[in-house]
């Protein structure tokens, strides 16, 4: 049975009610510029809380990749064993992307995000109880289920709190937290693990997630109900309000080409990010002999470059729009530029110098993050706000399914070929991004938003 995304009584569940633009907002738009700090700044505080969530999420997620050589020695894992552990994380992530997206649309962003973060925090802490490959599969399954809620929630929050002209930049800032988490992890582990053991690292990251839940529940409210938001900032947020639709049956999202443009893009590029996240530490260990105490600086460098790419991708498309480009031209041009940054990674597997390999991988991760920031933003460009969580969830499921394939492929290739298998794996990224932007353009050549007549039940109601 199709699930309904109910937009009625939105305020009661923590969702925003569209507000009319107040008198003088056009003048504010002209005077305030692209990011309009003059009309208020609280929305950027919300963006910072999302940034913290992304940072903690990726600390939890990356610990196992950085510790892979040590865990493999301790528990006798083969490459195939490790691939299977990652596989079960991806299976849960795929399930969570649909279920968490539905949950967010059903009970509201505030409560839904709190549930997701609580699940992943408890699962991260539960890694300390794992003593076998099976135990780690169970812990990673719980982690994947909860962590899947972060991106659907964050995209919904950004759509609620930012006008379209600021969304890509806000998305880039939030998304940069994933890189910060990937930076913190290799710096933290060489300090924590030798003194307290590997289990403590998992507990520490899980507790951080649970502390974040408290911050989220205390600080988040819909913008039109938030006591710390000025009326001028509320007007700015509502300066390009979307119409409020009565109902959108969940399965009715599937026939839309816009849904598949996003989902196929995620299916193609997300596995590449998983490849970087879970296998680059092993690559640096096997190809360049880097151990836990030496791998920190190279990984930090990779993700610092990646962080710049995330912010750059959001900034570039927003700048293009500010200079009069259409959303279609700005988003796709930026994504094509980002795809170009990925191409040189094919030379990384044969690089003799560790730092040459690090720079090539860093450029590729930067390209991914810039591409990803714009791909996420397409959901709020193309869909009514209340459908964003489900669309992001469906696309995220596609990305997780792609991740399932890469987990099995990487484990099998490296098991069969040893370190030389990295040459095969690093041929995949350049093709994935070019194919993704090509399919997006074919399915949505003008990035047309969903029209009122496309909706299943009646015309949109005017924003109230």
UniProtKB/TrEMBL annotation:
Keyword Transmembrane helix assigned: yes
Keyword field: Membrane, Transmembrane, Transmembrane helix
PROSITE patterns referenced in this protein's UniProt entry, alphabetically: MFS
Source organism superkingdom: Bacteria
Record keyword Repressor present: no
Xref: Gene3D superfamilies: MFS general substrate transporter like domains (1.20.1250.20)
Main location per the UniProt record: membrane
The protein's name in its UniProt record: MFS transporter
Source organism (scientific name): Pendulispora albinea
């Amino acid at each position: 049975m199709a699930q309904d995304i109910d937009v009625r009584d939105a305020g009661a569940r923590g969702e925003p009610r569209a507000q009319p633009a107040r008198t003088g907002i056009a003048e504010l738009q002209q005077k305030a510029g692209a990011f309009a700090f003059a009309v208020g700044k609280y929305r950027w505080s919300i963006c910072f809380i999302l940034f913290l969530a992304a940072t903690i999420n990726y600390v939890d997620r990356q610990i196992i990749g950085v510790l892979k050589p040590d865990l493999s020695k301790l528990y006798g894992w083969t490459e195939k064993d490790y691939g299977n552990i990652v596989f079960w994380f991806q299976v849960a992530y795929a399930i969570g992307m649909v279920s968490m997206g539905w949950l967010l649309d059903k009970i509201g962003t505030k409560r839904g995000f709190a549930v997701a973060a609580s699940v992943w925090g408890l699962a991260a802490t539960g890694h300390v109880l794992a003593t076998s490959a099976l135990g780690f599969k169970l812990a990673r399954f719980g982690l994947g289920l909860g962590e899947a809620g972060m991106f659907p929630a964050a995209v919904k929050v950004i759509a609620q709190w930012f006008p379209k002209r600021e969304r890509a930049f806000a998305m880039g800032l939030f998304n940069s937290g994933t890189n910060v988490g990937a930076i913190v992890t290799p710096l933290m582990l060489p300090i924590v693990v030798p003194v307290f053991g590997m289990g403590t690292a998992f507990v520490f990251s899980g507790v951080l997630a649970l502390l974040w839940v408290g911050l989220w529940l205390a600080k988040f409210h819909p913008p039109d109900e938030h006591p710390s938001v000025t009326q001028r900032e509320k007007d700015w947020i509502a300066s390009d309000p979307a119409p409020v639709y009565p109902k959108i049956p969940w399965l009715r999202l599937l026939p839309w080409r816009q849904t598949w443009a996003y989902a196929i893009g995620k299916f193609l590029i997300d596995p590449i990010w998983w490849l970087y996240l879970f296998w680059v530490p092993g690559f640096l260990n096997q190809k360049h002999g880097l151990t836990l105490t030496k791998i920190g600086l190279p990984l930090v460098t990779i993700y610092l470059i990646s962080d710049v790419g995330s912010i750059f991708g959001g900034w570039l498309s927003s700048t293009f729009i500010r200079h009069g480009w259409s959303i279609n031209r700005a988003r796709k041009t930026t994504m094509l530029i980002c795809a170009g940054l990925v191409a040189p990674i094919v030379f990384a597997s044969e690089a003799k110098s560790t730092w040459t390999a690090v720079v090539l991988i860093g450029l590729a991760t930067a390209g991914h993050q810039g591409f990803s920031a714009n791909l996420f933003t397409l959901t709020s460009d193309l869909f009514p706000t209340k459908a964003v969580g489900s669309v992001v969830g469906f696309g995220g499921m596609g990305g997780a399914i792609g991740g399932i394939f890469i987990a099995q492929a990487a484990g099998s290739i490296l098991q069969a070929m040893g370190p030389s298998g990295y040459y095969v794996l690093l041929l995949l990224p350049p093709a994935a991004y070019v194919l993704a932007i090509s399919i997006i353009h074919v399915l949505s050549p003008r990035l047309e938003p969903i029209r009122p007549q496309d909706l299943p039940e009646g015309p949109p109601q005017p924003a109230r």
